[in-house]
Amino acid sequence: MIDIIREFFLQFGLIGDLAWLLLKILVIMMPVIIAVAFYTLFERKIIGWMHVRQGPQYVGGVFGIGVIQAFADVFKMLFKELITPDKASPFLYRLAPLIALAPALAAWALIPFGENDSGPLVLSDINAGVLMLLALTSMGVYGIILGGWASNSKYAVMGALRAASQVISYEIAMGFALVGVLVAAGSMNLTEIVNAQAGDAGFLEWFFVPLFPLFLVYFISGTAETNRAPFDVAEGESEIVAGFHVEYSGSAFAIFFLAEYANMILVSFLTALLFMGGWLSPFQGWLSGPLAASGIWWLFLKALFFAFCFVWFRASFPRYRYDQIMRLGWKVFIPITIAWIFFTAVAAYNNWFILGA
User: Fold this and answer.
1) Rounded distance, CA 66 to CA 58, Å?
2) Which of these, 215, 193, 28, lies nearest to 104 by C-alpha position?
3) Coarse DSSP helix, strand, coil percentages of the chain, rounded to the nearest 5 percent
């Protein structure tokens, strides 16, 4: 079906190529934006149940679940006035949310959702996919820093400085964790990294088994990179009101909100792809039938689990002190990743892994 649609567009030449590209972008972007809306509802309901309360119920209350609540919140923010503080830098103040959002959405172009006979289901299947992802996701912090600085508010500047130092600290650990994956897979292409985890041993072939410390470091660093609890000192309500976006309202605040949750979903998908076999079945080589078949549903189930973990962390852990966050990043995670990179290199050189070799 996909090939038929593609051939239909490509027969119109350059205009058809552009239309086909735009269609693929919309097919990826619209579900991501809708997923963010439902993720907020999912978060509020899960935290409500964990805290023994109900969460949203009445706005679109199907089966006691406020299905339309997330969309009602979006419309409320979009129709609110965008207030610009008197002493703010107006151009940079309005530009900052877009700088935060653009990399969060652009990174989805590199995410493969599966494979078929015509190749991987990905918008841009480049060989240096992991490197490109690191570059794109590192850009988002500029929007946070710019938003805090352009607001000309002490609380906003303090939150921006915290976010900048936190991202710098955990970006190194996250990058080192990915180095282990690249050594084990022998490629920076995300599709090839998933295929390197295929084999008759099922989930024992996945990278989280031999690279378990790197898996933990990557996911925890991803939590810190997205400024989520218990690493949410950049927007710590009990200390600095709301941090870097304290002066934002209306649609600008909604864009920051969208960027944060899009990044959380992105980290969930990347963790599933890099360490958990992506769209590969955990029962491959063990069972026969539908459970042993690889498919996009496995990728979504794994990503849903990691998205649930973000909510679980928020409901379970208190916020770390700032010095504790810095110590964890510099004195714990970086030494662990350096040691495990050395182990991974030796193991790959001697072919000790079960990995898809």
Assistant:
1) 5
2) 28
3) 70, 5, 30
